[in-house]
Amino acid sequence: MLKKYYKFILPILVALIILIIPAPQGLSINAWIYFAVFMMVVIGLILEPIPGALVGLIGVGILIWLKIGPKGSGDVNHIISSKEAVNWGLAGFSNSTVWLIFAAFMLGLGYEKSNLGRRIALLLVKYLGKTTLGLGYAVAIADLILSPFIPSNSARSAGIIYPIVSSIPPMMGSYPNDGARKIGSYLVWVALASTCVTSSMFFTALAPNLLAMESAVKSGFSGVTWLGWFIAFAPCGIILFLLTPYLTYVIYPPQIKGSKEASKWASLELDKMGKMSKKEYLMLFLALFALLFWIFSSVDACAVALSVMIALVIFNIITWNDLLSNKAAWNILAWFGSLITLAGGLSNVGFLSYISSICADVLSHFNSNIAFAGIIILFYLLHYFFASTTAHVSALLALFIALSANISAINLDEIVLLMLLSLGIMGIISPYGTGPSPVWFGSAYISSKDFWKLGFIFGMIYLIIFLIICIPWVSFAHSIIF
């Protein structure tokens, strides 16, 4: 009986155990209580006894009742009013990045409803999909083409690429519970791994990149342009992108090596679609409009995305009912809104400054180069504790910037940029590490055990290549990038 309900019991048990342990010296009881609730939410997001968005909302609700979370609430003598607590709890839902992600889902829906995204993917499958390896590259390239235009890897990978990829394995007798390893497992992993790489490659390919940049600049980072970001990651990104389908082919090989059926199927599907429609041309124009403004304009990225979303409705590419009924978008709004609130509260109650002081003392005894790499590695691996990149950024980025600033001989701009560039690739390490992960994991083509194993293998490969290439490259090309 207990086994059936362990997913419900374990998060609460973890919180109770933390509460039983006395608060460490230098940390207030309020900060310790906050940490207990935060860890309950993190464990809940990992186990998901209920939808992740609801887990986050429960955590926010508990803290609102406790009146712990707003600035100053870490001090037990500081009185927080109910209104202050509620305003704090709802603040995440007014965050521009949350709404950018919401609008990005609508952009993804526009690609889907106009059939432009499907056309791009089918063209690639037609010309590259005659072998399984070629099909893997077709899936990866489709994501690469869409990534600069859609600042949500969920909308891009789960909304556009997934419907195409999921249509291919059944044609070759590959189903989740019967013959998954024939080709389905391979394609699923390539699709997820590729979107993690492209999420780091382009500033506008991952919504948390924008949030991270905003937070970093406020913490003393000089900032980089869209082009500067691309230049900084390009040497590593190109290698990772080219390696991913092949590495998957070697490490997690498909049983079927040829896939002429996929190429023929794509050709037939394109014939059925006919010539490009007016909606496809409009969608292409709006996508290019968004990209140009994200790269060259000072207009806020959220404002651009919301404007394009409105245009999609006006031009009838999507309908108002499509917008209202997009459960995934509204779910993300609730999920990210609560997580951003919870992550920000860690700083408000003084927990992050406490951890920062401890880590700074430890790292100060190491050589600056070792400390430099150690900070990046730690920032990367701590993603195991987060169910979204946005939550990771909100909870840890400011802390790690402050930590880096306290260590002599470390170039703050370079180490901060490297942390920002790692945000996409770190999503590969867990089944909940990035937006589309639950969708690909939920396809059931890869078992839970294999998913975790592949996440660890690819996560370490990505991290090692990233450290070896990006650290010296960012230093060498400093004047070009910044």
Task: Considering the chains and any ligands shown, give keywords for the structure.
globular; DASS family sodium-coupled anion symporter; transmembrane; mainly alpha; 482 residues
Q: What gap, in angstroms, lies between the N and C termini?
A: 58 Å
Work out the helix count: 23
The topology string of helices and strands comes to: HHHHHHHHHHHHHHHHHHHHHHH
Query: Radius of gyration in whole Å, from Cα?
Result: 23 Å
Q: Structural class of the helices, strands and pairings?
A: mainly alpha
Shape call: globular
Strand content: under 5%
Total strand segments: 0
Q: Mean pLDDT, as a whole number?
A: 85
Task: Report the sheet with the most strands, covering strand number, pairing sense and barrel closure.
Answer: none
Can you characterise this structure?
- 72% of the residues lie in helices and 0% in strands.
- The chain contains 23 helices and no strands.
- Helix 2 runs antiparallel to helix 16.
- The longest helix is centred in the last third of the chain and has 29 residues, at 448-476.
SSE arrangement:
Blueprint: H1 6-20, H2 29-47, H3 52-66, H4 82-91, H5 96-114, H6 116-128, H7 132-146, H8 153-167, H9 184-201, H10 207-218, H11 226-251, H12 260-273, H13 278-296, H14 301-314, H15 320-324, H16 327-348, H17 351-363, H18 368-381, H19 389-405, H20 412-425, H21 437-442, H22 448-476, H23 478-481
Helix pairs in contact: 1-2, 2-3, 2-16, 3-4, 3-16, 4-16, 5-8, 5-10, 5-13, 5-14, 5-16, 6-7, 6-8, 6-12, 7-8, 7-9, 7-11, 8-9, 9-11, 9-20, 10-19, 10-20, 11-22, 13-14, 16-19, 17-19, 18-20, 19-20, 20-22
Organism: Campylobacter canadensis
Keywords: Membrane, Transmembrane, Transmembrane helix
Protein name: DASS family sodium-coupled anion symporter
